[in-house]
TrEMBL record:
The gene is ispE. One of its GO terms (molecular function) is kinase activity. Belongs to the GHMP kinase family. IspE subfamily. This is 4-diphosphocytidyl-2-C-methyl-D-erythritol kinase. Residues 73-151 form the GHMP kinase N-terminal domain. SUPFAM superfamilies: GHMP Kinase, C-terminal domain, Ribosomal protein S5 domain 2-like. HAMAP family: IspE. The keyword Kinase applies. It comes from Thalassospira povalilytica. Pathway: Isoprenoid biosynthesis; isopentenyl diphosphate biosynthesis via DXP pathway; isopentenyl diphosphate from 1-deoxy-D-xylulose 5-phosphate: step 3/6.
Amino acid sequence: MSATYSEQAPAKINLFLHVTGKRDDGYHLLESLVCFTATGDVLSGECRDDGAINLTITGPMSASLALEDTDNNLVVRAARMLQAESGTELGADLVLDKRLPVASGIGGGSADAASAIRLLCDMWQLDIDQDRLAEIALALGADVPVCLHGKTCLMSGIGEALTDLPDLPPIPILLVNPGKAVSTPEIFRAREDEGFSVSGLWDVSRVFTSGASLADALSECGNDLTLAATSILPEICDVLNALAREEGCLLARMSGSGATCFGIYDTDEQAEKAARAIAEQHPDWWVSPTRIVCQEARVLSNIGASFPD
Ligand SMILES: C[C@](O)(CO)[C@H](O)COP(=O)(O)OP(=O)(O)OC[C@H]1O[C@@H](n2ccc(N)nc2=O)[C@H](O)[C@@H]1O
Ligand SMILES: Nc1ncnc2c1ncn2[C@@H]1O[C@H](COP(=O)(O)OP(=O)(O)OP(=O)(O)O)[C@@H](O)[C@H]1O
């Protein structure tokens, strides 16, 4: 029996997201403080010697993806790109445990693609240098390089320029999604008439020791996609209000192009209490109390990796 490899695919949070310009090809220049959480998908796989790539999707958020052609899944696309790059004749039976809501601003698909790159490089023993892997990641999506990097960083360019920042402590964070997908290109199109933020606002040397100090610094920034996203999906305002209303919430903000929003807290108890209250009022929303993870999210080969539920 062949070994089972496993990789976590943590949710990506844009703690702030500024749109600072637009390139001639239509992609937007961004500046974003990105971190990762202890909540995420899990990808596992076994090696095949016939070159086939098979993907099975399980888990609470698998329904919509299971209806799509798996050839379009970012996990399969990442695998095919690595096969083409390396010339390997190996294949894989992959299982994606989908726990993150799809098309929700927390980079679920991008995190899965990044975890596929990590898992397959390990399983197929590929020797592809980091710069080339970063190019492959960017070809899969603007958020894939930062997910492959997996560490708290300042993301700029269209998503490819990453500057490491001091680790954040394991700050409690609550993720809430209203259960409706939003399309990233549609949100960028909807902000066409808005101006651009200035770049270079974030002091990259700042060190944070608590949720309160982080929330205080973040209050000087924002998410420049919020207006566009709430005009398309007004429920995002309900999510932001629900988070802000609960005791202990230091900052409530949307991540990425939405619709997932996050709240920052000082203690796990506050985040969990808020989660219970919001889940009770909105049983159809996805509510996930978690923490910022501070170390590089990788190296789980050959073990049955799983996130806490
Ligand atoms: C908004 C963010 O979530 C912030 O982290 C990401 O930039 C989105 O990254 P992503 O979902 O991986 O995006 P992609 O799949 O590469 O691009 C989807 C579409 O979003 C728009 N897009 C995306 C990234 C970017 N820097 N500028 C853009 O204008 C483009 O219309 C593009 O066709
Ligand atoms: N493994 C995957 N998981 C989620 N979506 C996927 C996956 N593979 C392909 N997709 C497609 O990618 C689209 C965007 O999904 P994703 O969850 O990455 O969006 P997102 O959370 O808005 O990401 P971002 O924050 O990077 O904009 C979905 O509509 C889906 O059809």
